[in-house]
Amino acid sequence: MTTRKIILSGLAAGLLLQGVLGQAFASGSISPTHPAIGAGVVHRVIDGDTYDVNLDSPDLFSRFVSDAAGDRGRQRYLNERHRSIRVRLANVDTPESVHANAQRNSREGAEISAQVKLMIEGKPVRVLCHDWGRYGRSICNVQIDGVPAGDVGLWLIQQGYSPYVTRWGRNPYLHREYQQAQAE
Fold first, then answer.
1. Domains defined along the chain, listed by start
2. pTM exceeds cut of 0.90
3. Residue-wise pLDDT tens digits, 136-160
4. Residue 164 in contact with residue 124, Cβ under 8 Å?
């Protein structure tokens, strides 16, 4: 079995143990124990760790809309026409490439963004969203076939493009794998 399949199998098993797969479309606040899980297509790569994803399921998109009700910061990253959400990868932080403060942008950030764009833009992905960030973006793990690690965040850490960032908490689903990748 490949490493990617083992990781994804472990993730699925962990979610089943937590009883959250059946709650993918449940009402209530998006959280690690009540994540929003679904499939979509990456419409646009903003930079190495931020993407717009068009969700396949109207019900899943409705869950995001409901969860964002009354919060303009969250609502601004939801596009009803395309059923898209703005995704911020969980627990990674790549160098900036399109920051409003141009001095924060770097060539390394642009190169990483270009690699990620080639890898995932326009392609089907699976999202596992478990929180909202302080800027209103959905905090998610993003999985795609064809990425050696299966999980985009894990791949970024393995490539040395991002550290494993735990400032706001551990990755609720791939903590050990992210830790191991950071150590290698």
1. 3-177 (2.40.50.90)
2. no
3. 999 999 999 988 779 999 999 999 9
4. no
